[in-house]
């Protein structure tokens, strides 16, 4: 937890890399994932950088890979994922990879174009086949139609169209084609209106759906044949067919010619089928071969592109033989970085070792926490509020316990907690199998990524459910109740007889002070709430009192812990002025007011019982009276809460009152005094040294320099990492001798003082949400049990079984949707607020920025 409590100590390094070895060195650092490079050319356009052509080549390779992936997924071919993580290929291998992808793309495009041409020919022949069949059917129906006149039959048949029509001065012509079925009604209306009813249309549907060669979709079409007379109508008909995108085909007039053409079309279709199947098989072989290496190619191209993007952030020496980089890294990881640079140099075959300098800087370093699968979820919750400032105390290690615990206080139910725990346990045990599915849905990814948080929340909910003795709104009698009704009945009655009489009594009062009835056995329930309160009429009154006071106790402890965490920040920065001027008055203010209230709550629980409950004081009224210096005399023969309480409360009020001006004035006045002393000292130094000498720039000098090839290291002077001397960590105003605006300091301190004093009261009241949500959850669970499941439990016989099945199904559905999901989300958000606002504002600034190292693993996740 030490690495998680305070961020890693960071250093700013300067790298000098030989141009030939820079690619291999950056590749090794990308595999390591421990270095965050800085852009040394932020004002340079992306198209004016050194390696822009290489990045364009990578973009082109990615385009080809996406094209291959689209074709592979279109055919439903599985992409092989062996889980291998190949290294970034050398620049020379990049040329071979480009050639391979170029060859695959060209071959696939040629095969696709050839297959599309074949499918287009196949579609045309298939449509022509259907036209020949349907037109033959049209003519046969015309010959056998008894309702048609002799003249009409003569005109419709081919003999009439060729001979009879000429004898009568008539010449009928026909056009045959295929059109989409949904366009046919509009097509028919247009023909009727444009040709004014002087055409005869005959149409029939094609039974089987045809494949569109361009899109691959199945479409429904119809065959039509249009009879008309004259060239003018012929022109109009063809224009209408063109407008509706109907395909026209030649249709012979004689039956013999149609039969001969049909035989020829069938032969060509068979030959085309053979060639098309061969083409499709070849395409499948090409795609299956590509599918085996597609994921590896994606990884290689992604790594190459990431390397060149990083190299574009470097400065290039005037001779183009050396690249200069600056990067943040953890001090503990310097040895690993040295080894990675050495491996990269050896891989490139370079004889000149890279040089690593540790630089001094006053720039705020990035914040880096080492997290694992358990702690990453809680760290994400903290980072959502704000990334911790450099070396600031991190709330995450405490939130691992406090966050699920406060959630469970609001959600305490053994049954619901068990369901939540088992669901999270299933995700944890099968996380390897379920990890790929997290990319399919954002909602599912949220639950899966927070599986350890849900697991902890479920476990703590089980614990608090046992404390509340609540399991789906029912209590469980494990150890035996400390209350008994036997003393109120005849001692000679058997237990069954007593139960019978109890059922007949509408209400029964148990008085712990009645020695004769012996209702209270004087042996408290060993763990949690006594189950007798489940059937009592004043259950809500009793549990409300306990939960409300418990919420105040937990809230004050939580806030006080946050104030003490702020002490660790002050001590880490060696800021004793903040310890005296902020921490001490804050602790005295919080303890004197609400710490005393917590002690009174615990004292009241320990001292007062059923025998003297009538003398128990009202703590809220007593707290108000304490600040009014009003002390009521004992009434009804009840003694005061404890002897000497007036003097102690007066002392506490007198201790609390000066805390506000203490926080407001002490720190600004001391800072003002320091500034005046520094000003006097500077004036005296100026008199002694009227001509100050120029100091060398500490930006690069004084750092640690390492020549990896020779293994030499020089110790430097002041840098950011030795005692945090070079970076302003917010240790107080006036560090490093800079001038401070005292008016601004007073305003800032006044705002801070007012905020703290008011937040102590408002935040304590805010913790009452623990009581409110616990009550709401218990009542919702009680309502679901009483109004849904209890209906099925009261029925008997076969009808009762059916009613129980329906009631249980409905109850289970509402339990999951309302109590597990909606109530769980509500409690989660309230626990989040208690940490962000009530706990973290006591010590957490969150003004840092995240350490985002150059890592191939991060690039693969983004892909």
UniProtKB/TrEMBL annotation:
UniProt protein name: V-type proton ATPase subunit a
UniProt GO MF annotations: ATPase binding; proton-transporting ATPase activity, rotational mechanism
Species annotation: Macrostomum lignano
Bilayer topology: Multi-pass membrane protein
This protein's GO CC annotations: plasma membrane; vacuolar proton-transporting V-type ATPase, V0 domain
Keywords assigned by UniProt, alphabetized: Coiled coil, Hydrogen ion transport, Ion transport, Membrane, Transmembrane, Transmembrane helix, Transport
Compartment(s) where it occurs, according to its Swiss-Prot or TrEMBL record: Membrane
A Pfam match: V_ATPase_I
InterPro entries from the UniProt entry: V-ATPase_116kDa_su (IPR002490), V-type_ATPase_116kDa_su_euka (IPR026028)
Record function comment: Essential component of the vacuolar proton pump (V-ATPase), a multimeric enzyme that catalyzes the translocation of protons across the membranes. Required for assembly and activity of the V-ATPase.
Biological classification of the source: Eukaryota, Metazoa, Spiralia, Lophotrochozoa, Platyhelminthes
Stretches assigned to coiled coil: 51-121
Membrane-spanning ranges: 398-429, 552-571, 583-603, 615-631, 651-670, 797-822
Gene Ontology terms: biological process: vacuolar acidification
Chief place where the protein resides: membrane
């Amino acid at each position: 937890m030490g690495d998680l409590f305070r961020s890693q100590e960071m250093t700013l390094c300067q790298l000098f890399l030989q141009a030939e070895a820079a690619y291999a060195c950056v590749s090794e650092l990308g595999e390591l994932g421990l270095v965050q490079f800085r852009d040394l050319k932020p004002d340079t356009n992306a198209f004016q950088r050194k390696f822009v052509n290489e990045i364009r080549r990578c973009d082109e390779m990615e385009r080809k890979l996406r094209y291959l992936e689209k074709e592979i997924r279109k055919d439903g071919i599985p992409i092989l994922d062996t889980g291998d993580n190949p290294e970034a290929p050398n620049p020379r291998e990049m040329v071979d990879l480009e050639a391979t992808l170029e060859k695959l793309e060209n071959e696939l495009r040629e095969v696709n174009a050839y297959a599309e041409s074949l499918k287009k020919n196949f579609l045309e022949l298939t449509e022509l086949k259907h036209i020949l069949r349907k037109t033959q059917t049209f003519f046969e129906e015309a010959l056998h139609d008894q309702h048609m006149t002799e003249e009409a039959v003569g005109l419709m048949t081919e003999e009439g169209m060729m001979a009879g029509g000429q004898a009568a001065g008539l010449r009928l012509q026909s056009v045959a084609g295929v059109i989409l079925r949904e366009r046919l009604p509009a097509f028919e209306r247009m023909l009727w209106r444009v040709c004014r009813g002087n055409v005869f249309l005959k149409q029939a549907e094609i039974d089987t759906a045809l494949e569109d060669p361009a899109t691959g979709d199945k479409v429904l079409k119809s065959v039509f044949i249009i009879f008309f007379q004259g060239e003018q109508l012929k022109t109009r008909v063809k224009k209408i067919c063109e407008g509706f995108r109907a395909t026209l085909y030649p249709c012979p007039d004689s039956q013999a010619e149609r039969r001969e053409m049909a035989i020829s079309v069938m032969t060509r279709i068979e030959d085309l089928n053979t060639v098309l199947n061969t083409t499709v098989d070849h395409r499948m072989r090409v795609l299956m071969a590509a599918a085996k290496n597609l994921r590896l190619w994606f990884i290689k191209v992604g790594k190459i592109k990431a390397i060149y993007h990083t190299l574009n952030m470097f400065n290039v020496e005037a001779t183009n033989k050396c690249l200069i980089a600056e990067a943040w890294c953890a001090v503990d990881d310097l040895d690993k970085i040295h080894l990675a640079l050495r491996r990269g140099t050896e891989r490139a075959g370079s004889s000149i070792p890279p040089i690593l300098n540790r630089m001094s800087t006053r720039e705020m370093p990035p914040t880096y926490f080492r997290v694992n699968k358990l702690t990453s979820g809680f760290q994400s919750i903290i980072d959502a509020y704000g990334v911790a400032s450099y070396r600031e105390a991190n709330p995450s290690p405490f939130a691992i316990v406090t966050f699920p615990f406060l959630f469970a206080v609001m959600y305490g139910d053994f049954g619901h907690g068990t369901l939540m725990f088992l669901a999270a346990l299933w995700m944890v045990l099968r996380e390897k199998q379920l990890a790929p599915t997290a990319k399919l849905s954002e909602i599912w990814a949220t639950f899966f990524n927070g599986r350890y948080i849900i697991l902890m929340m479920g476990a703590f909910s089980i614990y608090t459910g046992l404390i509340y003795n609540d399991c789906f709104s029912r209590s469980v009698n494990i150890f035996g109740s400390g209350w008994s009704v036997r003393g109120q009945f005849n001692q000679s009655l058997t237990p069954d007889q007593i139960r019978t009489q109890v059922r007949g009594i509408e209400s029964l009062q148990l008085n712990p002070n009645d020695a004769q009835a012996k209702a209270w056995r004087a042996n408290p329930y060993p763990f949690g709430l006594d189950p007798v309160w489940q059937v009592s009429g004043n259950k809500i009154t009793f549990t409300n009192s306990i939960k409300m006071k418990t919420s105040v106790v937990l809230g004050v402890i939580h806030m006080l812990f946050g104030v003490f965490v702020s002490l660790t920040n002050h001590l880490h920065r060696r800021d004793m002025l903040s310890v005296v001027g902020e921490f001490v008055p804050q602790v005295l203010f919080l303890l004197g007011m609400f710490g005393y209230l917590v002690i009174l709550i615990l004292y009241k629980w320990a001292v007062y019982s059923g025998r003297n409950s009538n003398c128990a004081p009202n703590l809220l009224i007593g707290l108000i009276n304490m600040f009014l210096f009003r002390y009521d005399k004992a009434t009804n023969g009840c003694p005061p809460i404890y002897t000497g309480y007036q003097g102690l409360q007066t002392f506490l009020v007198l201790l609390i009152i000066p805390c506000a001006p203490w926080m407001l004035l002490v720190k600004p006045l001391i800072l003002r005094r320091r500034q005046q002393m520094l000003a006097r000292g500077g004036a005296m130094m100026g008199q002694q040294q009227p001509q100050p000498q120029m100091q060398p720039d500490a930006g690069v000098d004084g750092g640690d320099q390492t020549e990896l090839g020779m293994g030499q290291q020089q110790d430097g002077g002041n840098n950011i990492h030795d005692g945090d001397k070079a970076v302003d960590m917010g240790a107080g105003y006036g560090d490093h001798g800079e001038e401070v605006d005292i008016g601004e300091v007073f305003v800032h301190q006044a705002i801070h003082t007012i905020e703290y004093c008011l937040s102590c009261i408002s935040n304590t009241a805010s913790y009452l949400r623990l009581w409110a949500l616990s009550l709401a959850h218990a009542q919702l669970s009680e309502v679901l049990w009483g109004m849904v499941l209890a209906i099925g439990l009261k029925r008997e016989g076969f009808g009762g079984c059916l009613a129980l099945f329906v009631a249980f199904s409905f109850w289970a559905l509402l339990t999951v949707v309302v109590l597990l999901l909606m109530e769980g989300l509500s409690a989660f958000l309230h626990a989040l607020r208690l940490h962000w606002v009530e706990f973290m504002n006591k010590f957490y600034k969150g003004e840092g920025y995240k350490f985002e190292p150059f890592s191939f693993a991060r690039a693969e996740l983004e892909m």
